[in-house]
Specification:
The chain is of the alpha/beta class. It is built from six helices and 27 strands. The chain is elongated, with a radius of gyration of 34 Å.
């Protein structure tokens, strides 16, 4: 009896074990690989609430995308998207068994540890978005054996070491973003001639040293941003970068670069903010001359030749200089007398022209010579505006005029903001500028043509600013100076006119 009871319990245990594993064994191989990711998470997360090992396929799980693959009986996992889920843990090597995985999107989480080398076994992978995690270590050499890899974003992690030469094996790479890590050493030169499909390169906010390699100028397909800012790069900016396409936006600020900014090719499309934070840089578009005290120290200039200076002045030259000084003093005196009497003549005139400020009531009175006179009152269709800059001559020199009362920014803020070239035409260059409050605006820097007087320019711009139509971009502000004319308008991110007309 005891033996029979023991045998009965043993058989029950066997059946329990077998049937408890049947659901897990029914799950596809892709599902088992995904369960390894779920097991690698430190704490249970709602992102995996419907990841059940009893399912036959993982295609209905949150964040999982499947597709029918030719030659495969069942749909296969082609995408994992679990961004911004506050997931902490590590990346398991089992992800490499997802042979048809095309897009791995785990950014804005708290994954730590290293990037598994086995990920290179997922040979269909073309986009790897792991930015804003806590991943560390070097970039695995095997990563660039992925034949279809196009987008690699490892920014805002803790990767370290040198930027590896083997990135040159990622032949199809289009976007390489390694910003905000701990990469150190020099930028390798051999990588860039191999990446002829690269559209965007961002190595900013690392600990890179040395000079900018000439070979970066061979990136013929580059059309986005070349961002090397916030490093410790030194030396001159290579002139070879001028060979890059005109659409490329440079960002070299906050380094130790020196010398004159090249003036050829794509450099002519860059704004001054691309080069700020490099005290030893000079030349256009910075307002810092390379001549130094108005002298030209370029090789071959006459300023470098020794000058035989006379040891003394002849008596005749002394008399001539004294006479010239007396003439200048007399001329200045006549000018002062003329201005004084001119001012006296104008004291009886009544002028009520004044600049309006935010919050100032329309209309009002001003006093001229003891008598009030009514100031001009704007119609309700006019916009309030505020003027910044020079207050003096009434010619608008260096003035920022805000046509839109609701748009608040300072002139210094506009000049300090990062500027990216959107396009270029005969009317000038258009930049995208993001203000300190996060609002993007479009700034058109008008070309040379500067014989137009300020009053004519202001009248035309104010007329444009009054145009209100849903299909016309609003003009928000303008800036006028003899050497700089800017039009600030809304930034519209919905494509261009060609796309709107032709789809």
């Amino acid at each position: 009896m005891t033996h029979s009871l023991f045998l009965f319990h043993f058989l029950v245990l066997i059946f329990y074990v077998l049937f408890s594993f049947i659901p897990a064994l029914s799950l596809s191989s892709d599902g088992l690989a995904l369960l390894a990711l779920k097991s690698a998470v430190d704490q249970p997360s709602s992102a995996f609430s419907d990841w059940n090992d009893g399912d036959v396929t993982p295609c209905a799980w949150s964040g999982i995308v499947c597709a029918n693959i030719s030659g495969e009986e069942d749909p296969r996992v082609v995408g994992i998207s679990l961004a911004g889920k506050s997931i902490s843990g590590y990346l398991p090597s089992e992800l490499g068994t997802l042979r048809f995985l095309r897009r791995l999107n785990l950014h804005d989480n708290a994954f730590s540890g290293v990037l598994p080398a086995q990920l290179s076994n997922a040979t269909a992978l073309h986009s790897l978005f792991l930015h804003s995690n806590n991943l560390s270590g070097p970039i695995p050499r095997s990563l660039c054996t992925l034949p279809r890899l196009q987008n690699l974003d490892l920014s805002e992690n803790a990767f370290s070491g040198h930027i590896p030469d083997h990135l040159g094996n990622c032949k199809n790479l289009q976007r390489l973003i390694l910003a905000g890590n701990r990469f150190s050493g020099e930028i390798p030169a051999s990588v860039w001639p191999e990446l002829q499909n690269l559209l965007l390169l961002d190595l900013s906010a690392n600990e890179l040293t040395g000079s900018i390699p000439d070979e970066i100028g061979t990136l013929a397909s580059l059309s986005g941003t070349l961002n090397l800012s916030f490093n410790h790069l030194s030396g001159k900016i290579p002139a070879s970068l001028g060979k890059l396409p005109a659409a490329v936006s440079f960002d070299f600020k906050n380094n130790n670069l020196s010398g004159e900014i090249p003036q050829t090719g794509s450099f002519s499309n860059q704004g001054p903010t691309a080069f700020l934070g490099n005290p030893n840089l000079c030349g256009f578009p910075l307002r810092k001359s390379c001549s130094g005290s108005d002298r030209d120290f370029s090789p071959g200039s006459d300023q470098n030749k020794p000058v035989n200076r006379p040891k003394g002045l002849s008596p005749g030259l002394i008399i001539l200089i004294s006479a010239a000084d007396a003439a200048v003093v007399a001329f200045i005196g006549l000018v002062i007398v003329y201005v004084y009497w001119k001012k006296k003549d104008d004291e009886n005139a009544c002028s009520c022209i004044r600049r309006r400020k935010f919050g100032e009531e329309k209309g009002g009175v001003c006093v001229c010579g003891g008598f009030p006179c009514v100031s001009g009152e704007k119609s309700d269709d006019d916009e309030d505006y505020e003027v910044e800059g020079a207050e003096g001559d009434g010619e608008g020199e260096g003035e920022l005029v805000r046509i839109d009362k609701g748009l608040s920014f300072e002139l210094d803020e506009l000049l300090r903001a990062s500027a990216y070239v959107l396009g270029k035409s005969g009317l000038g260059i258009v930049y995208k500028v993001v203000l300190g409050n996060g609002v993007p605006v479009a700034v058109r820097r008008l070309g040379e043509g500067g014989e137009q007087r300020y009053k004519e320019f202001a009248a035309e711009v104010m007329a444009i600013g009054k145009v209100k139509h849903p299909n016309v971009v609003r003009l928000r502000a303008y800036y006028w100076a003899h050497d700089e004319k800017l039009l600030i308008s809304d930034f519209i991110s919905n494509g261009n006119l060609t796309h709107a007309l032709r789809g």
